[in-house]
């Protein structure tokens, strides 16, 4: 029985002795991942075997709950809680089938957020708890595809929403932090929350329309927590800290793909902040971030283009969607430089830089050109006129070839045609601009 051999008397590092530092507790995650994989070899659907395996952790779990209900010695309960969170994360990581994951879910539910409330200012405590939550939200191997009669997907999301909201509200109360404190004390936790939320939004195990239908505010609350945490982070920090950027931008990609009604309902300053973050992310060297920015921008531009195309002929039943589109259109009309700046960034990337994600860049660029034909003409003229006369006609032909056969729509076929044209355009422009000692490369940025 594996349950007999993973206790502190056999493995001292599983105890709460202060002879081990909190950083040493990280090995417990690896230990339990390995141990659980051994259990999974013959586990099948044997719930009794799983319960026996979890007995030592059951004792720890119940002890923590009991201590929280009474006066407690903080250091001891902290170490116990950190160890338990790391142990459970290791177990959750190894459970990649629906049957085994459901056993763990039934064992754990409901979760408790009091530890996050109590020690939100101590990353050594909150980080393992948040990472456990993020792991539980991962739908690897479709392990969270619960039965149709099961509410577990919604229950899981509700608990995650509570924890993210609790952590978000508490962490914002810390106020301003020094440069060396801001990541470990604040940004690391925010990045984990964003990663967990992204897993939930893209996991396909929660029908988010149910929350509004039944008046449940957990979805709205977690989105508001996302906004509050985001506004407390500077644009420079979003890009400077890699783990934060690689959790924020994929999350934004999910929001723009499936929840544009939320995006269009953002207050104008918040929406401007989000779009500025996309604009700055487009030019980053991190291809994960820049590709996510391209995809998010494509969803936004496509949404806006479709709204304009259907404007005036929406049936009454689509009035709410029409109003959302109108809000976004009004914002763009009030802030035309937003999309213009992003078009300029993408064109600069194509013409002057080593573009490693050309396909991703091409998708939003077509929509930007169709929505901003006049500004695109100005960019084209700017580049052409900056070159010596012998090159100007060559570049003009390159731009004509770019739009050859491209129609005024965003169908998949039309997008693919533009992507092919863009590949040829980039090659031909590079040849035309190849330095011959007579000119310096210019920039297409006309916003300054």
TrEMBL record:
GO cellular component: cytoplasm; nuclear pore
Species of origin: Eschrichtius robustus
Keywords: Cytoplasm, Nucleus, Protein transport, Transport
Gene Ontology terms: biological process: protein export from nucleus
Annotated localization: Cytoplasm; Nucleus
Gene3D superfamilies the UniProt entry points to: Leucine-rich Repeat Variant
Protein name stated in the entry: Ran-binding protein 17
Family the UniProt entry places it in: Belongs to the exportin family.
Claim: Cytoplasm is one of the keywords in the record: yes
Domain of life: Eukaryota
PANTHER family reported in the protein's UniProt record: EXPORTIN 4,7-RELATED (PTHR12596), RAN-BINDING PROTEIN 17 (PTHR12596:SF8)
GO MF, one example: nuclear export signal receptor activity
């Amino acid at each position: 029985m594996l349950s007999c051999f993973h206790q502190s008397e056999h493995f001292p590092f599983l105890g709460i002795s202060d002879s081990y530092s909190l950083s040493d507790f990280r090995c417990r995650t690896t230990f339990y991942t390995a141990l659980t994989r051994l259990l999974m070899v013959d586990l099948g659907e044997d719930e009794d075997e799983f319960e026996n395996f979890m007995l030592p952790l059951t004792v720890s779990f119940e002890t923590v709950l009991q201590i929280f209900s009474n006066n407690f010695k903080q250091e001891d309960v902290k170490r116990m809680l950190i160890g338990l969170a790391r142990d459970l994360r290791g177990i959750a990581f190894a459970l990649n089938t629906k049957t085994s994951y459901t056993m763990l879910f039934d064992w754990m539910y409901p979760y408790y957020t009091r530890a996050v409330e109590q020690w939100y200012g101590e990353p050594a405590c909150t980080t393992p708890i948040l990472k456990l939550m993020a792991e539980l939200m991962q739908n690897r191997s479709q392990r969270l595809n619960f039965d149709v009669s099961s509410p577990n997907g919604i229950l899981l999301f509700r608990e995650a929403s509570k924890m993210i909201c609790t952590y978000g509200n508490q962490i914002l109360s810390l106020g301003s932090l020094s440069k060396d404190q801001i990541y470990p004390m604040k940004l690391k936790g925010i990045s984990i929350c964003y990663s967990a939320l992204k897993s939930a939004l893209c996991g396909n195990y929660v029908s988010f329309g149910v929350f509004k239908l039944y008046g449940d505010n957990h979805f709205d609350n977690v989105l508001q927590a996302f906004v509050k945490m985001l506004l407390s982070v500077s644009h420079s920090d979003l890009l400077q800290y890699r783990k934060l950027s690689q959790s924020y931008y994929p999350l934004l990609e999910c929001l723009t793909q499936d929840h544009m009604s939320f995006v269009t309902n953002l207050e104008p300053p918040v929406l401007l902040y989000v779009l500025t973050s996309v604009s700055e992310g487009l030019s980053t060297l991190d291809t994960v971030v820049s590709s996510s920015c391209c995809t998010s921008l494509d969803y936004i531009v496509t949404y806006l283009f479709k709204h304009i195309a259907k404007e005036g002929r929406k049936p009454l039943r689509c009035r709410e969607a029409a109003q959302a589109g109108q809000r976004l259109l009004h914002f763009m009309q009030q802030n035309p430089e937003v999309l213009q700046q992003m078009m300029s960034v993408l064109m600069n990337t194509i013409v002057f830089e080593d573009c490693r994600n050309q396909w991703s860049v091409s998708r939003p660029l077509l929509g930007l050109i169709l929505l901003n034909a006049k500004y695109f003409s100005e960019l084209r003229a700017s580049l052409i006129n900056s070159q010596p006369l012998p090159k100007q006609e060559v570049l003009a032909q390159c731009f004509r070839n770019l739009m050859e056969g491209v129609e005024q729509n965003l169908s998949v076929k039309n997008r693919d045609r533009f992507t092919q044209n863009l590949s040829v355009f980039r090659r031909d422009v590079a040849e035309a601009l190849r330095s011959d000692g007579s000119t310096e490369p210019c920039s297409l940025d006309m916003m300054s």
